[in-house]
Structures are given as structure tokens and as C-alpha cells.
Amino acid sequence: MTREDEIFEKLKNGDESGAAELVGMYYEDILRYCMFRLPDRYLAEDAVQETFLKVFRYFDDYRHKGRFRAFLYKVAGNTCIDMMRKKQWDPIPEDAAQEESGMRKTEEQEDFLRIIRKLPPELGEVVFLRFSQELRLREIAETVGIPLRTVQSRLRRALELLRTEMEREGEAEEEGNKPNEIEIRKGGRAE
């Protein structure tokens, strides 16, 4: 029996400590995902809280088949979409939000996010889930709601674009130029 199975058993038996364990197990991963999807940390934290509230509110309807992590990401993704539709906000500068929260991104994390945000959103999300969140391809398919083959082709296409972009950045650094963001969004073809 996995740790997740033990927690589900606690929750089914009415032991509320299981809820805290489940949140502790997934909070940071879901927060990173929501921070990727939303414009500021505070909104992302709200999305995480709302995600867990939804999961616990409808927990009795959930059938545990060992895919809870994908289910949780799906709920978080839908929550982020709902928040983007409903809310108008003034984004807090990222540095201020990170300072207050005590979570500073490493330079590598910032570079990774900067590069994948240049990708078309459907490709960037697959890359983020695979490499930042370490989801398996099948979990990504369930999370995003697309066939496994589509995940594979999006990941392959994204990696091709990223490879091209990295080569272009290397050439641009040698020449002293910055690569054009539009070029990567259009699949490497400048307009």
C-alpha cells in the first residue's frame, strides 16, 4: 500500500489528519504549477487553496485508481482558468512577491521559465509539467485532457523549438544580439 493509499484510507474513515498529509504531499508542486499558469504568486496561492477545497469538497465522489496526482493537476488547471476568467488584478512585481514569500527562484529556474514562456501555451504547459513537475506522459495527458500521442508530439515539437531557440541564443550572444521572441512562437520562422 502506497503512502497515498494510506492517506485515502484515513480520509475515507473520517480521519482529518489525512487532509493535512495530502496537502503537505502536493502543496509545493501544485503551487509551482499555478504560478506557471497565473500572473502572480498571490493569485497562485489562492488557486492552490481553492484546488484543495474543491478536492476535499467532492472527495466522496472521487474513485481512487492510483492517478490522484493527475486528477489534482487537472483540478488546479481548471481552477487557474476559472480565476483568469473571473478576476481582474494588478499583478504584483514578481521580485516583491518572491521577497515577501521567501521563495526566490534560482537563475536556472528563471531561465527555464523564461524560455518555456516563449513557446506557444499548449507546448509550454507540456514542457513545464514534464520537466518542472516531473509528471509522466500519461499523467500529462490526463491533466491536460488530450491523448497520450498528442502529448508526445507536443513535447517533441517543443523540444525541437527549444533546441532551435538555444542555438539562436548562442549565435545571438556571439553577435551581441537578442533573439526575437516572435521567431520561437512562429516555429522558428521570423516574419
UniProtKB/TrEMBL annotation:
Keyword Cytoplasm: no
Family from the record: Belongs to the sigma-70 factor family. ECF subfamily.
Protein species of origin: Candidatus Mediterraneibacter stercoravium
Keyword terms: Sigma factor, Transcription, Transcription regulation
Record's protein name: RNA polymerase sigma factor
Domain RNA polymerase sigma factor 70 region 4 type: residue ranges: 110-162
GO annotation terms (biological process): DNA-templated transcription initiation
Domain RNA polymerase sigma-70 region: 22-89
Keyword Acetylation: no
Gene3D superfamilies according to UniProt: 1.10.1740.10, Winged helix-like DNA-binding domain superfamily/Winged helix DNA-binding domain
SUPFAM superfamilies: Sigma2 domain of RNA polymerase sigma factors, Sigma3 and sigma4 domains of RNA polymerase sigma factors
A family per Pfam: Sigma70_r4_2
MF term (GO), any: sigma factor activity
Positions of the UniProt region annotated as Disordered: 166-191
Domain of life: Bacteria
